[in-house]
């Protein structure tokens, strides 16, 4: 009976720890929206689109005057909540996610203001999570947007490099995303990773996918059959 109870507990733990990804983005002229559509076809993720509370603004009018004013306000007082434009409430529980991919338009070399509003509020709740950044700009380089992301998510564990997709490359986004996911080794975080049999696993405990503990030292690891395993209840590994 005790054994059955123990394996039930472990099975629940195994289900609860499967890595989950959230994609959060803002898009004014829908380039990032197209990028996120392409991304969603390649990874399993929940998706949230940030919407400014004030509707119908033309951020591009008068040589991008409104967008420019919003970015200036943040640059001048980045630690003041009042510098960030209001956004619609976002219904998301960040504790559910291990990885967050941010889709950001570039405005005046910075991250678009409404997305900064979201991260100003929630970035501190993303500490220790894997963070991926995809930036869309007409031509400007993305280091300012990366700086904003790191300022707003100070304890984020960022994938490197970020992915930069120029507006003119939007139609090629699927191929660029696919390459990027390989470069950052996205699969090793969410899914399957090879584990070497000579690896020192003293600090790990390995469970079968049904929850039975099958190895906790290098010797027992070497004796494992090829297959999928859960390590420390955190990741699924393939031997
Ligand atoms: C307010 C504003 C400011 C922008 N500033 C720049 C800029 O400084 N450099 C640049 O290359 N593109 C700039 N852009 C263009 C956007 O980065 C680009 O069109 C991007 O693809 C927009 O993404 P979206 O369609 O998802 O909104 C700006 C766009 C807006 C609306």
Using the 3D structure, state the CATH architecture of the largest domain: 3-Layer(aba) Sandwich
- The SSE order reads HEHEHEEHEHEEHHEEEHEE
Overall tally of domains: 2
Name the CATH superfamily assignment of the largest domain: Flavodoxin domain
Helicity range of the residues? 25-40%
pLDDT below 50 for ≥5 consecutive residues: which ranges? 4-17
| Shape assignment | elongated
Distance between the termini: 31 Å
How would you summarize what this structure contains?
The protein contains eight helices and twelve strands. The protein has helices at 2-16, 31-40, 61-76, 113-122, 143-152, 173-183, 186-190, 218-222, and strands at 21-25, 45-49, 99-107, 110-111, 130-137, 157-158, 163-166, 192-194, 206-208, 213-215, 228-231, 235-238. Helix 2 packs across helix 6.
Q: How would you portray this structure in words?
A:
This protein is α/β, with parallel strands linked by helices and 239 residues long. It is 34% helix and 22% strand. The protein has helices at residues 2-16, 31-40, 61-76, 113-122, 143-152, 173-183, 186-190, 218-222; strands spanning 21-25, 45-49, 99-107, 110-111, 130-137, 157-158, 163-166, 192-194, 206-208, 213-215, 228-231, 235-238. Helix 2 crosses helix 6. It starts with a helix and ends with a strand. Flavin mononucleotide is lined by residues 27-32, 59-60, 64, 67, 105-109, 136-140, 167.
């Amino acid at each position: 009976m005790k054994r059955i109870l123990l394996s039930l507990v472990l099975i629940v733990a195994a289900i609860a720890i499967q890595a989950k990804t959230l994609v959060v983005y803002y898009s004014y002229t829908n380039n990032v929206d197209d990028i996120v559509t392409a991304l969603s076809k390649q990874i399993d993720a929940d998706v949230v689109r940030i919407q400014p509370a004030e509707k119908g603004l033309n951020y591009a009018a008068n040589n991008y005057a409104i967008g420019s004013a919003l970015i200036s306000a943040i640059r001048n007082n980045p630690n003041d909540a009042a510098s960030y434009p209001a956004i619609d409430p976002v219904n998301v529980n960040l504790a559910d996610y291990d990885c967050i991919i941010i889709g950001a338009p570039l405005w005046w070399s910075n991250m678009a203001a409404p997305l900064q509003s979201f991260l100003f509020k929630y970035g501190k709740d993303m500490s220790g999570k894997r963070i991926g950044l995809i930036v869309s700009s007409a031509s400007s380089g993305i280091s300012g947007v990366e700086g904003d992301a790191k300022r707003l998510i100070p304890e984020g564990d960022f994938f490197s490099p970020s992915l930069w997709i120029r507006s003119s490359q939007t139609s090629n986004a699927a191929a660029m995303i696919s390459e990027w996911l390989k470069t950052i080794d996205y699969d090793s975080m969410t899914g399957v990773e090879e584990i070497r049999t000579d690896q020192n696993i003293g600090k790990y405990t390995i469970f079968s996918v049904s929850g039975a503990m099958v190895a906790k030292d290098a010797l027992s690891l070497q004796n494992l059959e090829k297959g999928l395993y859960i390590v420390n209840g955190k990741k699924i590994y393939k031997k």
